[in-house]
Specification:
The complex is a heterodimer of chains A (76) and B (313). Chain A is α+β, with helices and mostly antiparallel strands and 76 residues long. Chain A contains three helices and four strands; from the N terminus they run βαβαββα. A four-stranded mixed sheet of chain A has the order 2-1-3-4, sandwiched between helices. Chain A starts with a strand and ends with a helix. Chain B is α/β, with parallel strands linked by helices. Chain B folds into two domains: 5-115 and 239-312, FAD/NAD(P)-binding domain, CATH 3.50.50.60; 131-235, FAD/NAD(P)-binding domain. Helix content of chain B is 25%, strand content 28%. Chain B contains seven helices and 17 strands. In chain B, strands 1, 2, 3, 4, 5, 6 and 17 form a seven-stranded mixed sheet that branches. Chain B has a five-stranded parallel sheet with strand order 8-15-9-10-11, with helices on one face. A three-stranded antiparallel sheet of chain B has the order 12-13-14, with no helix packed on it. In chain B, α1 runs parallel beside α6 (284-302) and α6 (284-302) packs across α7 (304-312). Classes of the chains: A alpha+beta (76), B alpha/beta (313). Chain A binds chain B through residues 9-17, 20, 34-36, 38, 41, 45, 49-54, 64-66, 69, and chain B through 37, 39, 43-46, 58-61, 63-64, 79, 127-130, 132, 134, 136-143, 162, 166, 210-211, 231-232.
């Protein structure tokens, strides 16, 4: 399975919901808190073209926002 | 069109819709919940401290508990956005954007509200690329940058405070009137060296290439335009109801569905609850109460005594 990374901030309610969804689906993921790590924030913007969270990368695919259907589709 | 005729279709799965659904399912009504998301606006709330039974709980966590309760009652939850509601004889057809038509003998509308947009050039183009409607989510991404906040109410001033807490370099607060936020909030920003106020002004355009680089602001008093170099624009100008598709229902000048004290709309058999309605208090606990009321009234309508009652009026 492709690696799943979720870019979050600690105060983002949609990020919390997204992580809960992934856990409920049994999907392993890495979390990057871009609010605490400016370097990671810059990397996220360069990688995804987004300055907003949550952003999820599944392999080289990018899902913007809280989009469980989009994630399910990419994960098959 | 799906073949089944439901007793009730509930449109929306925020606090009002989910509460209504639990009540209807416990009454034994064949119920469908049609919603593009679960939790609605309550998901945007970082901390809820006034929902009884919980000293404090995050909005998403509270909505997760609602969803668990809904699923315990074995709700038929369809993930789709309603785009039309029409009456056919004694029943109603609700059209989903991707799932087609669904039929019910009664309907509860609980579609809530969404953030208002500015409607200026550049807003859509730079959404997620500097334009944000969620300061609690995105403020940490604007450390050491200049940003604009649009809106002088509580949510606008709260966005300024969120940005200050996350070390934004400079904040331009733009509002088309005076600040209308609570004094306890205004006091925290009014003389802050990082905050510059643009009262009686409006944003006219958002500029950039890949990301936002500037915003144009015009004074309503002098007509003077100024371009402010910013990397972010936080839009906090209030909410608007998700009611455009409800052509058959009477709405007020804000677009809210008009209901009476029994959650009845102008169309017998269609009820409404929560923030999409003209009920003034927009609170999670009020929405739940209204959802419960709408469910009970819909159940009464669907029983013989309920139909008789409606016909008698």
């Amino acid at each position: 399975m492709a690696e799943v990374t979720v870019y979050t901030t600690s105060t983002c309610p949609w990020c919390t919901r997204l992580k809960d969804f992934l856990r409920a689906e049994g999907v392993s993921f890495n979390e990057v808190d871009v609010g605490k790590d400016p370097t990671a924030a810059k990397r996220m913007v360069e990688l995804t073209g987004q300055r907003s969270v949550p952003v999820t990368t599944i392999g080289d695919q990018i899902i913007i926002g809280y989009d469980p259907d989009g994630i399910k589709e990419l994960l098959g | 069109m799906t073949g089944e005729l439901y007793d009730l279709i509930i449109i929306g799965a925020g606090p009002a819709g989910m509460t209504a659904a639990v009540y209807c399912l416990r009454k034994g009504l064949r119920t469908m919940v049609l919603s593009k998301d679960i939790g609605g606006q309550a998901n945007w709330t970082t901390l809820v401290e006034n929902y009884m039974g919980f000293m404090e709980i995050s909005g998403p966590e509270l909505m997760q508990r609602f969803e668990d309760q809904l699923k315990k009652e074995k709700a038929n939850l369809v993930n789709d956005e309603a785009v039309d509601l029409v009456q056919h004889g004694g029943a109603f057809t609700v059209k989903g954007k991707t799932t087609g038509e669904h039929r019910g003998r009664a309907v509860i509308v609980a579609t809530g509200k969404r953030p208002k947009k500015l409607g200026v050039q550049g807003e859509e183009q730079f959404k997620g690329k500097g334009v944000s409607y969620c300061s609690t989510c995105d403020a940490p991404l604007f450390r050491e940058t200049a940003v604009a906040v649009v809106g002088g109410g509580n949510s606008g001033v709260q966005a300024v405070l969120d940005l200050l807490a996350n070390q934004a370099r400079q904040i331009f607060l733009v509002t088309n009137q005076e600040l209308t936020a609570d004094q306890v909030l205004v006091k925290q920003i009014i003389d802050h060296p990082k905050v510059r106020l643009y009262l009686h002004s409006q944003v006219t355009e958002i500029h950039g290439e890949q990301m936002i680089t500037a915003v144009s602001v015009q004074s309503q008093k002098t007509g003077l335009k100024e371009q402010l170099p910013v990397e972010g624009v936080f839009v906090e100008i209030g909410l608007e109801p998700n009611s455009e598709f409800l052509q058959v229902l009477r709405k007020n000048n804000l677009g809210e569905v008009v209901i009476d004290c029994e959650c009845r709309t102008n169309l017998p058999g269609v009820f409404a609850a929560g923030d999409v309605t003209n009920i003034p208090e927009k609170q999670i606990i009020v929405a739940c109460g209204e959802g419960a009321k709408a469910a009970i009234k819909a159940w009464e309508y669907l029983t013989h005594s309920g139909e008789r009652k409606v016909e008698a009026e």
